[in-house]
Specification:
Blueprint: H1 23-74, E1 78-84, E2 90-96, E3 102-106, E4 109-112, E5 117-122, E6 131-134, E7 138-141, E8 148-149, E9 152-157, E10 163-168, E11 174-177
Length: 189
């Protein structure tokens, strides 16, 4: 039989680790999260650029319908005129009068000749890099039938080459398409 001395040291308590993460585990988790966020940023920027392009194309389509309805309700021809302001800037005006009766002057301003009346001015934000490229400079909507002269395709494009085309037929109706099938739009034929 073995006897233990009466004055033996008490047994050490077992140390249980504290709940939670250690500093090393937290730093590893943070590093993984930063890598994931960093890889998602280009995709988010691309999505933002596509949404800006789509919003500008949708606004143009709405304004084409607005110009047509104004011609019918006001009983006089209404025009939508597109012009370049610089190498990477463009604008359009909805107006009455001659084909070149109203012009964008930049900075959200327009100038109209006598006999022309400005109804709306739109300049896409230059920061987005979105431009409008028309096949015809000025479209006229007839006041009795709502038809358009001439028919046209207006191209809304961003600096990366993505584009949405707004095709206006003789009846003044607008159809949207994209050469690359962007954003669920049908590809242009």
């Amino acid at each position: 039989m073995t006897q233990t001395p009466a004055h033996a040291a008490p047994a050490r308590p077992v140390h249980k680790p504290a709940p939670g993460l250690s500093l090393v585990e937290m730093l590893c988790t943070l590093a993984i999260m930063l890598v994931l966020i960093g890889s998602a940023l280009p995709a988010l920027n691309d999505l933002r650029a596509q949404q800006a392009l789509r919003a500008t194309a949708d606004l143009l389509e709405t304004d084409l319908q607005y110009a047509r309805s104004l011609a019918l309700t006001e009983g006089q021809p209404v025009r939508l005129s597109v012009q370049a302001l610089g190498a990477a800037e463009s604008c359009y005006v909805i107006h009455t009068g001659a084909a070149h009766g109203c012009r964008c002057t930049g900075g959200g301003q327009a100038r109209c000749d006598a006999g022309s009346r400005l109804l709306r001015l739109v300049e896409p934000a230059t920061a987005t890099g979105i431009t409008l490229a028309p096949t015809e400079r000025s479209l006229q909507f007839d006041s009795s039938k709502g038809t358009v002269t001439p028919t046209a395709t207006l191209r809304v494009a961003d600096r990366d080459g993505r584009a949405i085309h707004q095709i206006i037929n003789i009846m003044g109706r607008v159809r949207s398409c994209s050469p690359s099938g962007l954003g669920g739009l049908r590809p242009c034929a």
